[in-house]
């Protein structure tokens, strides 16, 4: 990270005050922007798709690649069009079903998401991300037992991945309650290598790391703005989940918005921050109508 960027983050952290860790200005990264490489790649794919001598398989692959580019740039409606076009040309693509399942989850169409992830796993039963994504969709759909089964299997494939542990904890917390979830979270942390930065996020849920400590460590350890934006996206999302569970909806809303502020479109935390905001708004509107 440049000295200038680090100074901006630390300045934001210095504005954190008191035990409640409220801020005047929250620490933020410079929002990620399209790179020249992405723009050139996108233009090149557009040129190739204009040709009339492509096979269906080649055209399907190009639509998939362009869809991934659109997705990474936050152009999700265009991405969805590309993914659907790719499937119409070549229906046996597990990766395309997987990303469409994520899109269905983001928009709250859970049954369609389950079907998409099932299709992925039927085509490739080793597709671990589809297993994780189906578990998350089941979690948001309130089907905690099935979500737990998927996410437990996903965790067992790599016990040193903190994000697998965190999502398993979130499901257990809503399904079995705080005490059981925290007991298992502590055990899984202890049984891991604890090398990845994400383990600090897991410790935060146990109260072993404060919000201020978490953000200070993030600021000092991020090597550049890209890493800073990614880690802030993760930190703000999981802090939002924490405060939402405590009943502090206002702070959760602010944190979900901050999780999206760095434009880290490809991260799970960015994808589901908007879903969380929509769910909070829906519940609030239901309460107002009563």
From TrEMBL:
The keyword Cell inner membrane does not apply. SMART domains: TPR (SM00028). TPR repeats lie at residues 60-93, 94-127. Transmembrane segments: none annotated. This is Lipoprotein NlpI. It is found in: Cell membrane. It comes from the Bacteria. The keyword Metal-binding does not apply. Its main location: membrane. It comes from Salinivibrio proteolyticus. Keywords: Cell membrane, Lipoprotein, Membrane, TPR repeat. Homodimer. May be involved in cell division.
